[in-house]
Design a protein that fits this description.
The complex is a heterodimer.
Chain A: H1 2-37, H2 42-47, H3 59-67, H4 70-102, H5 106-116, H6 119-132, H7 139-167, H8 171-179, H9 184-195, H10 197-213, H11 216-221, H12 229-240, H13 244-264, H14 266-273
Helix pairs in contact in A: 3-13, 4-7, 4-10, 5-7, 6-7, 7-10, 8-9, 10-13, 10-14, 12-13
Chain B: H1 17-40, H2 43-69, E1 71-73, E2 79-82, H3 86-92, H4 95-127, H5 133-145, H6 148-159, H7 165-172, H8 187-212, H9 217-224, H10 229-257, H11 261-266, H12 278-287, H13 292-320
Helix pairs in contact in B: 2-13, 3-13, 4-8, 4-10, 4-12, 5-8, 8-10, 9-10, 10-13, 12-13
Classes of the chains: A mainly alpha, B mainly alpha.
């Protein structure tokens, strides 16, 4: 009887591992192929795509930095993703705190609208506005417009992610601080914020990656000086057909924050991606 | 003689224990209410910046889009004024609009069904505690958080008609090469495959979290009654999982109806508009055809579609959710 149970469990474990193998080949295989191709020559990738014995080198990366101003694009991406994340958190954290305190669903609803509205709906008004203020020809203004546009992504995300964290802070702590005479600002900064520190980390990392990845706003709103990685990679496609190695190196560079995140902050990421879906 | 006497002595009569406790309760409630009120004092200032920013970057653009859709903006930036519903009638008479709606619905339904079915299977794998589960989960996370542009470029290479991996693999099986993105009959399926690849693991992660939070009692009871594993999964697991499934499907639905990035990177709506989803059509109307007012109308139609489908989902969830 008990050996039956053991062998049934063994069989199930084996079944799971076979499933792992299939799933890894299907879903992780292409990512691996991208990373691997980034270190191979165009000729190798296209003539013997799955030959594991072909030579590896970092030439593709050297070339994209050499021929294109890749350092600049990375800096642009950092400015835009970093700026919009900072603003999203700066406005979003107090808002999430108040939403929980007031048990307010009105703003949550507006956030849901922002989550559901198609991006082009924002990019068109933003584009018209940016042309009206002369942003296409002014680098500082252009960065500002891009950061503000990305706040459309980061602010709802920060609030959405932070509300459950603030909900888990016991109300008695807030009351106690109030009885001790703490102002609302002190209660927020000194009592609530330290307790939601993990939530802040989740919000920062996810906002940064989502903003970094976002393609549409950069495509429509940036100029030659402010263009970030995803938008510039799009313009490579034309030349790509003759240089898949360089294209995969560019893709790898764009994917870097996400890859780092998936391996280091996995638990938070699962929680953030599934926020609201599962209690 | 009460053991502890607090406060001033009260007049006889009103001091029955019931009356006293009721008054005390009322007092406590009032105190509680006032403390709840006091806790909210000054919160406006914490909230105002987010409110303002939301107004400027979210509500104002939505409102402006609405204005664009009922007016006649020219490519040179001037506006010829109020048009009323002219753009909407134009949209209903526009065969390209109906075509793009068909593409959107095709991608939405195909991807949602496949992602849900595969997501349940993969979600089961992700839910079982075996050694290496975390590492496996990390690998499964990567497609969903990889930038869409990188995903698009990667699949352009895989789909390359003469040089790509896909046709080489087919070739080694003796199958003729497929024109993945160049054939209007095949391109929508190729695009759907990319989305399924990218988002099935995401569905699976949500479903796995749902499976892991299921109560074990019903399964044990059914096991004692002699139900097989499959029967347990189908008759107990799936109904219990329905709320999580609908939320996961809703999240995908909202994104699928707004399908844009992958298409724009890989085909820009072509060939012959076969992948010209509504969102892509809206973007091209604005930035390629320079027709802002009509683009705004298409975007509003898309927004309404998203809201309608989301509302239908929410309704179905309330209607069919079973309490256990």
């Amino acid at each position: 009887m008990s050996t039956d149970v053991v062998s049934a469990r063994r069989r199930r474990t084996l079944f799971i591992y076979v499933g792992y193998l299939v799933a890894l080949m299907l879903f992780f295989g292409p990512v691996l192929f991208m990373l691997w191709s980034a270190f191979r020559t165009h000729l190798d990738i296209t003539s013997t795509p799955l030959d594991v014995t072909s030579a590896l080198s970092a030439d593709n990366f050297v070339r994209v930095f050499d021929r294109f101003d890749f350092g600049r694009y990375i800096v642009n991406s950092v400015i835009i993703a970093g700026g919009s994340t900072a603003l999203g958190l700066l406005f979003g954290a107090p808002a999430a705190y108040v939403i929980v305190l007031r048990q307010w669903s009105g703003l949550a609803f507006v956030m849901l609208l922002a989550r559901m509205a198609p991006g082009v709906m924002f990019v068109l008004p933003f584009f018209i506005f940016s042309v009206a203020v002369g942003a296409p020809s002014n680098t500082a203004l252009n960065y500002t417009v891009l950061v503000l546009a990305h706040v459309v992504i980061t602010l709802p995300l920060c609030i959405w992610l932070l509300v459950p964290f603030f909900e888990s802070v016991p109300a008695s702590l807030d009351e106690a601080a109030m009885i001790d005479g703490a102002t609302i600002g002190a209660r927020f900064i000194k009592v609530a914020l330290p307790l939601v520190a993990p939530g802040l980390a989740v919000a920062v990392t996810l906002s940064f990656v989502f903003s970094w990845n976002y393609f549409l706003f950069a495509l429509a709103l940036s100029n030659n000086d402010t263009i970030p990685l995803p938008a510039i990679a799009f313009t490579f496609i034309g030349e790509g057909q003759s240089d898949y190695g360089g294209l995969m190196a560019a893709s790898t560079l764009i994917s870097l924050p996400a890859l780092v995140l998936a391996t280091t902050a996995q638990r938070w990421l699962v929680r953030g991606l599934t926020a609201g879906a599962v209690k | 003689m009460p053991a502890v006497s607090t406060g001033p002595p009260r007049a006889r009569g009103s001091g029955t224990s019931r009356g006293r406790s009721r008054r005390r309760l009322a007092l406590r409630q009032r105190r509680h209410q006032s403390s709840a009120q006091a806790r909210l004092k000054g919160t406006t200032w914490l909230f105002a910046p987010a409110f303002l920013v939301t107004g400027v970057v979210v509500l104002l653009p939505i409102g402006y889009t609405f204005w664009l859709s009922v007016s006649d903006r020219q490519p040179d930036g001037s506006n010829a004024g109020f048009l009323g519903a002219a753009n909407i009638t134009r949209m209903f008479d526009d065969p390209l609009f109906w075509q793009s709606l068909r593409v959107t619905m095709f991608l939405f339904i195909l991807c949602l069904i496949v992602e849900t079915i595969l997501g349940v299977a993969l979600g089961y794998l992700l839910s079982v505690d075996v050694r290496g589960r975390r590492a496996f989960q990390a690998a499964m996370l990567i497609p969903a958080i990889t930038a869409q542009v990188a995903v698009g470029l990667l699949w352009l290479l895989i789909y390359d008609p003469s040089l790509g991996v896909a046709n080489r693999l087919l070739g080694s099986l003796g199958i003729d090469p497929v024109v993945w993105l160049g054939d209007p009959d095949i391109a929508p399926w190729s695009i759907a495959l990319v989305d399924i690849w990218q988002w099935t693991p995401f569905m699976a992660l949500i479903i796995a979290a749902g499976i892991r939070s299921l109560p074990s009692d019903p399964f044990e009871a059914a096991g004692i009654d002699g139900a097989s594993g499959w029967r347990k999964a189908w008759h107990i697991g799936l109904p219990l999982l329905a709320p999580v499934l609908t939320v996961a499907m809703l999240l995908r639905t909202v994104d699928l109806i707004r399908f844009f990035d992958t298409i724009y990177v890989m085909t820009q709506g072509g060939p012959v508009n076969s992948t010209n989803a509504l969102n892509v059509y809206g973007y091209r109307s604005a930035f390629v055809n320079q027709d802002a007012s009509y683009a705004a109308t298409l975007q509003l139609a898309l927004f309404v579609l998203v809201l309608l489908v989301a509302a239908a989902f929410t309704w179905a969830r309330r209607r069919f959710s079973v309490e256990y």
